Amino acid sequence: MREIRKIREHPDMAQAAAGWFHEKWGIPLKAYRESIEACLRRENPVPQWYLAVEEDRIVGGLGVIENDYHNRPDLAPNVCAVFVEEAYRCRGIAGELLETVCSDMAAQGVEPLYLLTDHDSFYERYGWEFHCMVQGDGETDMSRMYIHRQDTGK
């Protein structure tokens, strides 16, 4: 059975989560540890970290940080580090993670959310809209910035 976990509610998973994200993205382990520790302190709604767990195994995850290494600090906060293990793809896990993060952040008064990606036609399935092109730090090509606004029923 799969479960989406908010790391702030599962501090026992903090170290494993930091290691897992580091392994997937190659960002220094220390950066993930510091961000997850800030999440656990609950001083601010950002940063936040989420995991998809199946049989006590991390199979997917994502985070929310202020800036996902791009030149537009006004487009914040950013969903980052979206990843699902290859063997678990095409099972709706990314969608569950994205729905969870959007509703959880909106409940904390944080919206809209932004997401930097090279993908197109994936995030649109989950209510994200293309917003603009931005320059990623150290990147020569421009990347796609998406926005998600919580549906208020208006």
Tell me the number of helical segments per DSSP (H or I, 4 or more residues long): 3
Percentage of residues in strands: 25-35%
Shape label:
globular
Q: Give the C-alpha Rg.
A: 15 Å
Instruction: Report on the biggest sheet.
Output: 7 strands, mixed
Strand order, largest beta sheet:
1-2-3-4-5-7-6
Helix content: 25-40%
Separation of the first and last Cα atoms = 35 Å
Instruction: Catalogue the unreliable spans.
Output: none
Helix/strand/pairing category:
alpha+beta
Q: Helix and strand string, N-terminal first?
A: EHHEEEHEEE
Number of strands: 7
Average pLDDT across residues?
95
Short description:
This protein has 154 residues and is of the alpha+beta class. It has helices at 14-25, 29-41, 93-107, and strands at 2-6, 48-54, 57-65, 78-84, 113-117, 129-135, 142-148.
How is this structure best described in words?
The structure is a single chain. The chain has 154 residues and is of the alpha+beta class. Helices cover 26% and strands 31% of the residues. The chain is built from three helices and seven strands. It has helices at residues 14-25, 29-41, 93-107, and strands at 2-6, 48-54, 57-65, 78-84, 113-117, 129-135, 142-148. It has a seven-stranded mixed β-sheet, sandwiched between helices. Helix 1 runs antiparallel to helix 2 (29-41). The longest helix has 15 residues, at 93-107. It starts with a strand and ends in a 6-residue tail after the last strand.
